[in-house]
Predict the structure.
Amino acid sequence: MLSRQFASLLIGLVIPFAGVLGGIFFTSKMDTTILGFPILYFWVFLWFPLTTVCLCISWHFFDRKVYEDGIEEGGGE
């Protein structure tokens, strides 16, 4: 059970956190632009949908069963 919680936290929180901060660290000194945006802004805005994908993966593979079982026990409200 603990390894499932750890994997869920890793995919849902640690990967997006490291992705955003790591990207800021590496791209802050670059002058490159992508689609007219500085690469730093592009990187941060890119992580909005990527974070959503990480949270979706975490819920789908690790947490969905917990919530589905809870709804069935509650009488189907």
